[in-house]
Amino acid sequence: MNEKEKQVANEHQHLTQTHEYKAGWSFFLVLAGVVTTLGSSLPVGYNIGVVNTPAEVIKTFCNESFVSRYNLPLNDTWLNVLWSFIVSIFIVGGCTGSVLGSVLADKFGRKYATIATSALSIAGAVFFLYCRAANSVEMLIIGRLLVGLAGGLTTSIVPMYLTELSPLSLTGAMGVACPMGVNVGVLVGQVMGLNFLLGGVDDWPYLLSVFAILVIICLPVLFILPESPKYLFIVKRNEITSIKELSRLRGVSSSILTEDLELLREERRAADVAASSGESKWSMARVAADPRLRLILLLVCSTQAGQQTSGINAVFYYSQTIFIQAGLSKQSAQYATIGCGFINVCTAALMLHLLPRRGRRPLLLGSTLCATICLAALAAAMTAIEMVSWMPYVCMVAVLLYVLFYGFGLGPIPYFIASEMFEVGPRPAGMAWGSLANWGGNFLVGLCFPTMRRAIGPYSFLVFSAITGALFMFVRKYFPETRGSTPAQVTEACSQGFRSRPTRNPNMNGV
Questions:
Q1: Are 308 and 446 in contact (CB under 8 A)?
Q2: Which residues of the chain have pLDDT under 50?
């Protein structure tokens, strides 16, 4: 053995004996974060944000298609009904994909379920690209349904996949990747809709489908990523392959992965205890019926639904009007709205730094409380916007602050918190429930907000403020700090339902 080999052997022996090895960022971990953010999460946000700009042009296409094919001109009422259906079918697809996510994640694995999701996205983009050439509104609707399905699967599977790949110290940072991708996608959708890019009258099929370029680029890379070692070890019971994938993921020999392997064995022991009840399959119904998981499920679903029912989409809807009333031109107001999206992206990026240092609970509490205050201030300022000359500027500041505070907790944390609360067995079903609550909240706001806006105007934001305030109270009483805690510890701390006091549990890093 030469001198260099001896040095490597001594370092390996030192790491093995002293257990000083600490898992951190590795090539495959970073690659997984980048590829799933660009190829999976970004298209979700893109398809959420892109339809507003070409709405009138697409409505004209729909009317002309019905006239030429069915000799049936649509009046404004029926055209609006059709457009509402085209928009909302995306959310229906998202809800359906959320439910299917738990099945696909366990049947095919986290990685291959993500690959299937990318295939759905590409199929949806193909329908968008050719729907005008085929003069087919039906192809447009099918495309929206397919990208909605892909969106629901993404929000259900990708955060779980990334956090299962991560060492315990990096689950928060990796968990932010999915919401950051969604935020970037919304921003990219707004930017691509500008007139000098793809916002022209004849460009809308390309505008709707251009996201597929990223999906196609990222899809081959997904095949070389490791499968989740936790999925292989605990769900598939394939210990040898799991350790090989874990070694490849961490970039070190399996002989020094003692801490990671001990955590895997601890979670498998917990899964074995759960399976001893006679039920080995964690369906969504079983998760909902299990009293030990009830509080965790309520926390996950309430934060996911609360993320949408805080009115973020309604604020973005109103933002351009508010900026115009503050004296900006229509084009400048469009740029200012894009600026709100940019703030959302920047705060999500900052969360990569903040989450490992500040924890989940204080950031979520602070974000929810500040969002509640900003929404109330926006409602008050909008009622007086015609009476006081400087009130539009107050509205503008309230919008910007709301978007800023939303991004520091309420935006990103709900996406991944289920993966830190649920153990591996019930995790896919728990993630599916959370994703379903998120898409359901989105659908509820989309359904109710136009009616609320007509009935009570600016006071709609008081409703959002009250809902967000109620979420703050619930989170303050029951939401535990998950940073540095294993899912088994979280489950135990919340196992008594509403009688639990997880924020006071000495085994948790509560704040």
A1: no
A2: 4-19, 510-511
What span, in angstroms and rounded, lies between the C-alpha atoms of 352 and 348? 7
CB within 8 Å of 54: residues ≥ 6 apart: 193, 199, 204, 207, 208
What dihedral do alpha carbons 150, 154, 156, 161 form, nearest 10°?
140
- Alpha helix locations (H) across 384-459? 391-407, 413-421, 427-456
Structure tokens at 300: 């996950």
Q: How many other CB atoms sit within 10 Å of the CB of residue 248?
A: 18
Instruction: List the one residue out of 162, 296, 178 whose CA is nearest residue 231.
Output: 162
**Cβ atoms within 10 Å, residue 400:** 16
Tokens coding 257: 């992965």
Q: Burial-class residue 179 by CB neighbours within 10 Å (0-12, 13-18, 19+).
A: buried
Nearest CA among 429, 502, 488, 438 for reference residue 157: 429
Q: Which of 108, 97, 110, 90 is nearest to 45 (CA)?
A: 90
Tokens matching residue 190:
């707004």
Round to whole Å and give the CA distance between 298 and 477.
13
- Rounded to an integer, what distance in angstroms lies between the CA atom of residue 309 and that of residue 311? 5
Tens of pLDDT, residue by residue over 166-225, are: 887 888 888 888 888 998 998 898 889 888 888 888 899 999 999 999 999 999 999 999
